[in-house]
Every structure is written in structure tokens, then in C-alpha cells.
């Protein structure tokens, strides 16, 4: 075994996880490619679980980052003012918010997804004076106690070691055969239901960790209407589905809804650096100064790359490109399901956030393992890891995308030839 | 007003805080100095609230970071293996753990202080099967619901919008006139006390946000004994006091105790980049793979600078240097208290984590404001911001330290001449 | 106003409730009749909300009670042994448990419904080591914090003043148009649902306070199967529906299920005296001695009358009689719904636990008020008091039952002649 | 073994407790005496754990009760009006409240101690909008989840099976060697303490179950002042200490304080029948009608005997008599401690609520067991059952009191002769 792998396996807590599926030591990355210490090249269909939508080490961002570091720009600033932060806010307003007719205030809640979720939940409770949050089956929002309490996965919930409180789980779209919102509305409408009108609902438009479940647009629209009817705040957790992953900057744009609070992180910095924002409708921005704080809210390196990354959104070209490539992916997945009935597969997802759920127990994991052997990095998702999940960088060239898809097909073929047992 | 400041004040959530005390736009930083967009120079006695113990943009780390970025080293890796991570783990073991006879497993819980605290609390509950955590008056551990539940500040607690549960607050050292541990032991010893044997106690050896309260070594030793007696895990939250701030790498070294779990963040990366680790006694490392995860656990830029920063600890020189300079600071503070009785001041703290609590309401804030005018950045702390807090970089040259102290004295003199009213 | 009414209205807390609907002072009661201080006679279709299934002051029980008091039998005994308690246990085993092939252990949890519910929840959590309880929409289980946490009514829940925790509400039978158990099973089956496998489900076979909702037998059977499949304890709260109210001693007999834990109170003592038992499958009876206690567990007067009341169940006659009379009631209600379309009524319930839900807002309350004027006591139920609820004593003679039903019809006729407005 | 005892031991849940200490079947009781089925006579120094302060089956109450039952008075009335209830309220106002210059509204919260405690906690939270309750070490308030959350005993708390929340435990008087209120005030005064200003404090003036701890009057007065200073409601749980047990009707009279809410039960009905009231300052009586309800709030048999029992308080005679006899008891206990140093005893308590805490492990239990053999019923208390507890009826004749005390001394003598080992 590699000395480096050895060090990690001996020193790092057993909680480590991805290293178990991708047991090699990576040393270099560019765009959609990664290389390990043996020089083996991989196509990355994982993209840092959605944190690398623009691929690895984008040259334009890299240049600006090195320049900033070189000139001794402020690295760490808490929530003091820096020019890098002002530049980011200006451009985020100009390129993202204004063209979409959004006027959110921007909160820096700490640099990770779970930080933005926690800040959203706290603010929703503060604004409404209510305690409960409605979350949805299959939801994933983070590992700190507040975010974990709205996360569905039972193994992760048990990790809390305490009962998780002040939340109610409702059925996500397509959870059962009939309209799940009938159920939700009945609970809210009936004062004897035992379910209180909540402070907020927290929703992913497409659930990543939960198994690549895409809510229909009209389901999302009805959720927005239900929230309005009862004065419930609508929080869209766009940490994984946002920043282009489903085809638009915000994943909810296509549904035509305007959430009260939006959580962004992962690909926001563009370069894979920790950054998160919580977007808040101005009338809800009633925090006390410092009521929520944190040491790494002012990660200026991330401001610099995030600002550069916004260039992708200055016009429609990037959206169009994502759209074209996502059609390729989708067709490919439909082909797999149709032509490999042994998969017992179902295509899931939207845009670049797609996968196939296989009813054959353990099969998705085997496909991902085989693909890794063949030089493609791909994750599984879902409560039983039943989905293999395609998360290429949005910037991947079409031919390379094609090459990645072929590796997947090759992996499946190989497994079907082998007897599929558990 | 500056256009940049304008952008921030208009776009950022009202939760922003430090910008209110330091209302200028910073553009450059080096060592113990910062410059704003007008070219004004400041001495930094704040150090990113303890995240910049080695000062800003240290040249050695900077060089390694630029080199790493230039060669397209892995930036973001979740918990996959990277050479940068292996290097960090190896050096952390060699330079920090082994020489101190510690054999902790290293968990990457997400890159911020609140992440490491949450992971520590979760693990302690999981290991013991108990639910309660004992925290201490004046404690500060973070803003996510788990960490907030062990934080004392009432304004921040109310920000949760829900009752904070599964914790018991006990009196920190010197909280009242007699030994606070008599009380603690009585509660634990008495099965009718209503206080259950907790999973863990979480302790800061010196409380930063709580008002620069330093626990005596024998108090800490007794805490360790009490924990052992009842099978309670001892968590030292060394996020602010660690990495040299009190004179040694871990703040608890001088007390001769060995915590079960240690939380590190802030200055761990050396360069102000988001990084945190949770150190766990091997026998307690019973996580399920992936039971606690997070997107930014593999912040390789931070691994690179953190590895470089460990050079400071290869021998005793740095500790000695800290010690010498902290004596200067301490003498200065004693001089202030003695010679400016109008302060009604009390010297607090240890090492480079010191301050003066002034009984005159609002006076500490005025001193900090005055010092800012005169080119020195300094924060207040404590439940009523009654403490002005000296947090220079550990690396500050003696003459510059002296210059900073003089600005403080000048600020006080100026205020005493003015009528001190509220 | 009556002096007595005056005293009560001035001295008793504003929380008083039934006195507002029945504003007179009662002084005497016998069987199905009550008299007020003015000598006005009322037919009682309320039966102490199900606590007086055998009517008021039954002569046989009365005789035994007076005899016991006269001879200075033990009145209050905590859980010391008394002959009255032994007699009750013996007869309860002989007349109730054995013939039904049930071998429950009998716990005296305190003398009220909420006491038995609390003990059941505590035991279920203790036995399983799990924290959550699944309750159902429309459920009513009591006013203490544990019981309130499984109660649906939002006004009563808010009365807690704290968030109610460790419970999940699921849809009762007929809550929506499709099978509610599809939802329940999906939530339990999916490890990503956010709903943990609970310690227990607590179910009323017919919901009284929730609006006289009767679950179908096959729904109850499926609930039992679901509980078995996942090792969930099934608690039947038979406080209101038990002791003959639905036609059999236990309300669940007709459904052919055997709960793990049964809660009984209300009519258990027969005479309206406070008494409750928690019936526990022997293998679940793992309490520590004294782990749940209470001052009034040994209410021997209630033991005496409860023992006497069991005579009703020595053979099938009483069940047959209940059945015959309940058919009369049911036919009458169907006639009302059919012949008074202005009611927009729906017949609800089973046995002697029936009512009509009227879609006309406030109408049910008006019917009850009118009936009170005409000498009949009757309650409303449901989240919006939309149901008028017929709860005559099971022992009411047929002609008197008929007379009561006529008063109801007369009340409706009177109201329909009047313009029905709100 | 007795057939009756057999039935109970086989049929009743293992949670049964007192029957284990007093393993015989009681059949008759009068005043301070009980008889078992073998005709053995016992002196009762237990008094139903304080529910029988007037002794068993008092003739005057008995007569009124039989008369009421005979004439078919209302037995069960929920919170409808009855003449028996009006009579009780009138006399309670006339004899108890007015002479003491108290104008409480009377709530019937359900007939047991835990019901009144739950109602008090709910109301305090509702009135203040705060969630926390401060309780005290050694406190005992009941077994339902709300009351259990303010109870100290760890075995009973664990019985909940869930973490008990929204409460903070503070040290009762004499819990440590210095003034415990210094701590309490410091916690409340310091906004960084982690302890929120609570809705209420719940206090027993003398703790029964907690080990017969009597708070000093000036401690209680300071508690009242602290509550006033911070707008905290003061709840006195007088369930065990009230109704004359400490020498006055309310136990807090001698301390000169006026609680905001008072909980009464146990001896309130006089005859051992379930009854409880919650007394509420009029301005705090802001319940919604029916917001807290319960089936057995209208236990009219208990109203009848409670009304009769108030005759004891029509003048000072009863108080004087209690005082005289309690001096006898106290002197006797001091004599025991002085003359039997083997006891390592400490006298505890006030009035008729006294005992001796023995440092010799298990000794108090042995004394109680020996006394039972010799015909005296007496309980132990305290977290480790280290206190033997003298709770004779207040009405016991002096010579019989003396006889009971002699049995205790005899028991001790007998044990000292035997080798005292565990």
C-alpha cells in the first residue's frame, strides 16, 4: 500500500468515508480530470459532491487567486470589510440577483453548507416565533444538530446521540403513488392533526444524497402556495442543486418560485474553497448584529474565486451548454435502462444531477467500483446506496463526457457478464 | 463613505458585526499589520479572533501555497486521500502529537470551530450512551444548534429560536468566591440532584468570548479527575486558546492534563484558511464510516499552510518567544490597572490571551474605539463587553508589540481626560 | 343567578369549561338522569365524557361502597396491599382477562387517564430503548406533558408552553381519501424518511375528543401487523372507548387484536371514582420497583365499586343489550342525516360512541345548547366542535333512550325553523 | 403466604413498591391505626405519605360522605357545577384563603399531585412566554413527564426513557456549606451564564421524598425576592408539606411569603380520596376555557370530605395541638441522635415532617423494617433511603404518639445489639 494512504488510514478517524470507495492518493487535478500518485488518470463524475461544478483548478480563477495571494490581499477577515468581499457582493448582485429580479440580503453564516442551513433555520424561527420546521423524506441538510434534525438519513441521525427535535418530516414529491401535498395540506388545515404550523419548510428541488429525487415544478409551486397560505417561510436548500447543477444558477428558477431564504455553498466559490451564503428577503433580515457569527465567514480567497466564477453567468451561453450536455446524459441513462433490463433501473434527476436507481441490491455500488477501476470516479446515493449518481463538472467537454459515459456502460456490461450476486 | 463599504452595508445582512467596530475596507495585510483602502496602516491586536496567531500572510506558508496552487494540486477532496492531507497528518503526528506523548486519531469534521465542537458532542454521546453535556458559565463553542446549546451568551442562545437542550451549565473557575468544583461534585455525587452523569464536559482552559477567564491549572486537573471518577469524557475546546495562544501548542499542556477529545480550528491552518480537526483518543474512535461528513473536510490549501505552520513547533524557540512577549504584555496590563485607577480594571487571562475587565460600563468599548482611531485593532469580550482583549499575533516583533501597547495607553489617557460618561 | 353558580364562577379558574355549556348546579343523579338545584331533570347523554358508562350512582355499587366505608375499610393505601385491591385483581382476572385469553399484568399508575398514558409511554421507551412514539391525527390522550405530546389538538398543545417532543403524528384511518397506512409503512420502511422506528404507537380504536372517528377493524389489524413487523409496541388507549362503550369490554376485541399495553380509566371504577390501570404483557413488565409511583394508586373506594361493576361482564347479556340499543341509536342518526339535509351531516362512530359531524359551522354546538334547554345533556367534539356526540349510559332503558333521541330531533327541528346563521 | 397477597404479587406489575416493605394485607383503618387481615394492629407513622394527615376514616367526614352517597349526590361531574363543589369553594375561601389574606383562584387540574404540578408549570410558561423552570436538588414533584422533569431522583428520571428538558436544577438550602443563593443569583445576573431567566421556580418548603430537608425561612424569603427581581413566578409545591404537615395549613405561612402559584393535593380531601387544586394569583389566571382539562376534576366525594376537613382550621386549636405534638417528636429525635451515636444521625425537618438521616448505610431501612415487625409503619426517604421518616397523622393522641416513638427506640436498640453490617 502507498505510504501516504497508510498514513491516512492509520491517523485519520474511522469516520473517513470516500477514501474507502476511492482508495488511492490524489495529487493533481484539472478540469474534469484527477491524477493519483501513481500517475493514473481519472475522469471525475463526482465533482466534490457538487462542490466543483466548474471542474478542478479553473485557470481563470487560479490566476486571480494567485495574484491576490501574491499581493498579500486580506486572507481572513471575519466580517470586517475587505475589497475582495465588496467585489464579490457587487458582482453577485449585478450578475445573479438583479437579472433574476431578486433582492436578497446576503448573509455569510460560516463557510459550509451546514452553517447556512443552521442560520436559515434559526432565522425562520426568530422571524415567525414558531419552533417547528417541516422537512421532507430523503432530505439532506448537514451534520450539525440543527441541520441534522431536518436530515432524513437514519444512520446519520443516530450519530447525534440525542433525539432530534422541533421538526416534522413530510413526504417529498413521488414518495407514494398519490399527491403527497394532499397529505401535507390536510395536516396543516386540521387544528387537531398534532402538526403545528411551522416556522418554515426546507426543501431541496432535487435531492442529491436522498437518491437523486427531482420534485416536479408544479409540486414546488404548490409548496410555495401552501407556505404563503399559512405564513410559512420557504427555505430552498440549494447547496447541492444550485450554482448550475440543474441547469440554472438557482435550481428553483425553472419552477418560477421565489423562496424566502436560500442556502448556497459547495460550488459557490467556484474553486472548491469553503464558502456559503444565506440569501434572505430584506424584510426578514431582522438579526441582531453578531447574533450568528463564526470565524471563517470572511474567507477572502473564496471571495476572489467566487467573483471570478460569476463570469460564467454573464450571459446565457453557459446555461445553454449545460442544457445540451445534460440532454446527452439523460439520453444515455434512458438507453441504459432500456437496454440493460438486468439493471432494473429507473432514471432519476434533472440537468447534471442525475443517476439511475437500480432495484438490484448492491448493484449500483458495484458499478461505481468497476468504473473506478476503469478510471472514472462516481458516487452512489440514496438510503440504501441504490442510485449511481452522475455528477460531472458542468464544464466537461462533450467528447470527454462521452468517454465517461462509455466507461459506465462498460462497467455495467462487465458486471452483467459476471454473475450478479450479493 | 467608501463605495466598497457602501456595497457591503447595503448588501450584507444586518447580522454583520465587526465591520461596525472597524468601519473601513481592508485591502492588504502582512504579519501584524493591516492596511485599508485609504492606505492607513493598523497594528492588529485582534488576529482574526485567534485565527491568525502567526500573523497575516506568512511568507513561508504563502510560498508553499502558491507553489501548490500553481502545480494544480488537489484543492477540494472531501475525505478522499491527497498527498497534501497525508503530509499534514504525518507532520502533525511527528511534530505535535508524538513529542507530547499523545496518540489521538484525527477527525476532519468540517472546517470550522462549530463543526469540531458538534462532532465532539456527537461522539461523546455515542460513546457513552448518555445525552447530557456539562458546559460552563461564560463558555463559547459556536453557533450551530449543538454548539450553541453549550454556549453561555443569552443573546446568542435566543438566536436559536428553540429551547436548547441536553446540557447543564456549571460554574467556571472563579465564578463565585468559593471553589466551584465543590458544587459540581456534589451534583454528580447526589443521585437526587436532578443532574445526570453527563456524556462529557466541554471546557475552555481560557475563555475568550466569555471575557478572558483563565482557569487555574489545579481546577483543570480536578476537572480531569472528576471526569475520570464518573466515566465522563473531557472535551477541551481549544479552538481559540490552542495553537500557541496561551504559550503552548495545546492550551492544556501546562496543566498536565490529557483530554479525551480536543477541538482545534482557527489558527490551525496558520494562514487564516478554514480548517478544523477533532482529536480523539483511539479507543473512543467508534464512528461508523460517514456517520459525520461534510463537503469541506478536505480543504487542501489549508493542509498545505497548516503543514508549513508546524515548522514553528519543531523546537522550543517559538514557545520561549511567546513566553517572553507575553510577560511584556502582562506587565503592561498590570501597570495600566495600577496607574489608571479610573479604569477600575482587573487583569485577565494567560499568555497572549489577555485583557482588562473594566468595571466602568462601556469603557472598554471606548478604549477599543479610540485605539482604532489611533491605528490599532482590538476587540472587546465578556457578557457585557466589559473586557478589552489583547490578541496580537504571536509572531509580532517586540518593538511593534510595544508600539501597540503604547497606543492602548494613549487611548486610555485620552479617554480619561474626556469626561467618562455613558 | 344561583348563589352556588356564583361562587364557582367567582372562585374557580377561568379554565373551567363544561360549566359554560351546562350552566346550572347539579345536585342529584341516578342512572341516566341528573337533577339541578331547581329540581329540573335532565337525561344524561354525556356520561361524564365516558366515565359513567353504567350511569350515575348504580345501586349495587352504592350499597357495596357504603358498606365498605361503614366498616372502616382501608380508604387510601398507596400500593400497599388491601383486601379491596386483591378482590379487584382477582375478579378482573377471572371475569375480564382469562375469558378473553389475555394475561396482562396490572399496573396502577395513578387514578386518571393521563396517568395511565404517561406510564405506558414511559414503559414503551424503557423496554425498547427508543424515544419516539407515533400518535395519530385527532388523538386525545391527556393533559400532562407526556400525554399532551401525543394529543393532536393545537389549542391544548399550545397550553404546554414548550415544544412537545419525541413524537410523530401519522394520519388516522380515513384521514385522507386513500389508505393512510401506505404512508405509514413507507415512512417506516425507508431509512431515509427522517422518521425513526418508534418505541410504540398509541391508538384509540374510536377517537372521542378527536371527533368520533372509528377506525376500521382491518386498519387496526394492519396497525398491529406493522407494529409486529418492526418490533414496535402497540398501545391501545382505551380510556374513553373501553369498558363497553363500543360494545365490548375492550374496544379492540371486535378487531381481534392483542395490544402490548392497554390504558384503562374513566368507567373502570364504575361509579365515577378516579381509577386507572395500565395493562402490560408480562414480558414487558420490566419496571424497577417504585420507578413510577403516585399517591392515589390505592383508591380503595374505587376498587370496591370497580369490583362490583365487573358483574356486568359475567356473561354476554350486557354486550347483547348494548348492541341492541346501539342499533337504535345508529338508525336514529342515519334517519337524522337523511331527513334533515340542512344538517349536512355524517354519522360517525361505533356502539355507544357515536355522533353526527355537521358541515354547517357552529350547528352542532347549537343543537347541544338547544337540547340542554329541553333537558338533555350532550357534548360536542372534533377540532372545530363540529360533531354532536351521543354518549348515553350503556344502562339506559330503551324508552328513555328513545326519549333522549326525540329531544335531539326536536332540537334540530327547532333550529331549522330558526334561520341557521353564525 | 396470604391468598390475597398472592393475588397481588402475581397480578400486579413489578413496579409495586410499598407492598415490598409492608408485606401484609390491610383490611381496616381508623385514625392512626391500621389492621391487617390477621388482625394485627399497626400504628401508622406513614399516613399515606402525607395523604392522611387527619388519620384514617375520620368519623365526621365519614358521616358526611355516607350521607352524600346515600342521597345520590353527584359523584362525578367533570367541571360542571355541583352543590358539593360550590360548598367546598365557599368554605375554602372562608376558612383558608380570606383569613390568610390570600385571593387565589382555584383550579381543579385533575385529582393528583402530579396533575397540579403539571398545570402549574404549563401556566407559568404560558404567562411568561419563557420555557425553563428552575427546580431544586432533592425535589420531588411527580411521575408524569412535566413533573418528572423537575424531580431530582435519577432512578425515577431514567424511567422517562427520554431526556427531560426545559428545566435547570439549582442547589436547595444547605446543599453545600455556603449560601446556595449566591450561586443562583450569579447565574441569573450573568447574561453569559447559559441559564435563562426561567418562567418559574418550583420549591418545596420542606422536601419529603428528597430526604426531609427543611429550607430556612430566610432562604425562602430570599427565593421570593429573587423571583420578584427577575419577574419569575414562584410555585410552592405544597402537596406533601401542606395541609398542616409542617404546622400551618400552608407550609409557607411561617416564612411569610406569598407564592404566585400553589400546588395542593394529598391531604386536601381529608379522607384519602384523590383531590388536587392549583391556586393561582388572579392576574395570572389567563387559561383558555378547557385549555387544561381532565376527567376526574370533579370528584364530589372528595369535595364533601374536603369541606368537612376544613373544620379543623376554623380556629387556632388544631395548629396549637400540632405544635405541641411536634415538639414532642423533635425532642425525641434529638434524644435518639444524642443517645445512640451508632446512628450517626442528624435530625431533619419541621413540624410533623421529620426524620433522622443516618450515615450508616442501610441502617434507616433496617430500623423501618424492625419497627414494622413491632407494629409501626414508617417509611424511608432520601436519594439513598438514608432517612427514616416520621409522618404520624396530625390527629394522633399524645399517648399513642409516645407509644409509636417508643417502638422506634426499641427498634434501634434491637439493631444496635445485633451487629450492624450491610
From TrEMBL, chains A, B, C, D:
PROSITE patterns per UniProt: AA_TRANSFER_CLASS_3
- Which one of the record's GO molecular function terms can you name? diaminobutyrate-2-oxoglutarate transaminase activity
Enzyme Commission (EC) number = 2.6.1.76
Tell me the pathway.
Amine and polyamine biosynthesis; ectoine biosynthesis; L-ectoine from L-aspartate 4-semialdehyde: step 1/3
For the keyword Nucleotide-binding, the answer is no
What class does this enzyme belong to in the EC scheme? transferase
> What does the record list as GO biological process?
ectoine biosynthetic process
Answer whether the UniProt record assigns the keyword Transferase to this protein.
yes
Keyword entries, A-Z: Aminotransferase, Pyridoxal phosphate, Transferase
**Top-rank taxon:** Bacteria
Q: Name one Pfam family in it.
A: Aminotran_3
Q: Write down the required cofactor(s).
A: pyridoxal 5'-phosphate
NCBIfam families in the record, alphabetically? dat, ectoine_ectB, PRK09264.1
Indicate the family of this protein: Belongs to the class-III pyridoxal-phosphate-dependent aminotransferase family.
Any idea what this protein is called? Diaminobutyrate--2-oxoglutarate transaminase
Organism from which the protein derives: Saliterribacillus persicus
Amino acid at each position: 500500500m502507498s505510504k501516504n494512504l497508510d498514513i491516512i488510514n492509520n491517523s485519520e478517524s474511522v469516520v473517513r468515508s470516500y477514501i474507502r470507495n476511492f482508495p488511492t492518493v490524489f495529487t493533481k487535478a484539472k478540469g474534469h480530470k484527477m491524477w493519483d500518485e501513481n500517475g493514473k488518470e481519472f475522469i471525475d463524475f463526482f465533482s466534490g459532491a457538487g462542490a466543483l461544478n466548474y471542474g478542478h483548478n479553473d485557470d481563470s480563477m487560479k490566476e486571480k487567486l494567485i495574484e491576490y495571494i501574491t499581493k498579500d490581499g486580506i486572507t481572513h477577515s471575519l466580517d470586517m470589510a475587505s475589497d475582495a468581499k465588496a467585489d464579490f457582493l457587487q458582482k453577485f448582485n449585478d450578475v445573479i440577483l438583479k437579472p433574476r429580479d431578486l433582492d436578497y440580503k446576503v448573509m455569510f453564516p460560516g463557510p459550509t453548507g451546514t452553517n447556512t442551513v443552521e442560520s436559515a433555520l434559526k432565522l425562520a424561527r426568530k422571524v415567525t416565533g414558531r419552533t417547528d420546521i417541516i422537512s421532507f423524506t430523503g432530505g439532506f441538510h448537514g451534520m450539525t444538530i440543527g441541520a441534522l434534525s431536518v436530515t432524513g438519513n437514519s444512520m446519520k441521525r443516530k450519530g447525534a446521540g440525542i433525539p432530534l427535535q422541533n421538526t416534522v418530516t413530510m413526504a417529498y414529491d413521488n414518495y407514494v403513488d398519490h399527491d403527497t401535498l394532499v397529505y401535507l395540506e390536510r395536516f396543516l388545515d386540521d387544528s387537531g392533526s398534532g402538526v403545528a404550523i411551522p416556522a418554515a419548510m426546507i426543501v431541496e428541488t432535487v435531492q442529491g444524497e436522498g437518491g437523486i429525487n427531482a420534485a416536479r415544478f408544479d409540486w414546488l409551486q404548490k409548496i410555495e402556495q401552501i407556505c404563503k397560505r399559512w405564513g410559512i417561510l420557504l427555505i430552498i436548500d440549494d447547496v447541492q442543486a444550485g450554482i448550475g447543477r440543474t441547469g440554472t444558477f438557482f435550481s428553483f428558477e425553472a419552477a418560477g418560485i421565489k423562496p424566502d431564504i436560500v442556502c448556497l455553498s459547495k460550488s459557490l466559490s467556484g474553486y472548491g474553497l469553503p464558502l456559503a451564503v444565506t440569501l434572505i428577503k430584506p424584510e426578514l433580515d431582522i438579526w441582531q448584529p453578531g447574533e450568528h457569527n463564526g470565524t471563517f465567514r470572511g474567507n477572502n480567497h473564496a471571495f476572489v474565486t467566487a467573483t471570478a466564477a460569476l463570469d460564467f453567468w454573464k450571459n446565457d451561453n453557459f446555461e445553454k451548454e449545460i442544457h445540451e450536455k445534460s440532454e446527452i446524459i439523460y439520453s444515455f441513462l434512458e438507453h441504459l435502462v432500456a437496454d440493460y433490463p438486468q439493471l432494473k433501473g429507473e432514471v432519476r434527476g434533472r440537468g447534471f444531477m442525475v443517476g439511475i436507481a437500480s432495484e438490484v441490491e448492491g448493484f449500483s455500488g458495484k458499478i461505481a467500483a468497476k468504473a473506478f477501476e476503469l478510471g472514472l470516479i462516481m458516487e452512489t446515493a440514496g438510503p440504501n446506496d441504490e442510485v449511481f449518481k452522475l455528477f460531472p463538472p458542468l464544464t466537461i467537454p462533450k467528447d470527454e463526457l462521452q468517454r465517461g459515459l462509455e466507461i459506465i456502460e462498460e462497467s455495467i456490461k462487465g458486471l452483467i457478464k459476471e454473475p450478479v450476486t450479493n
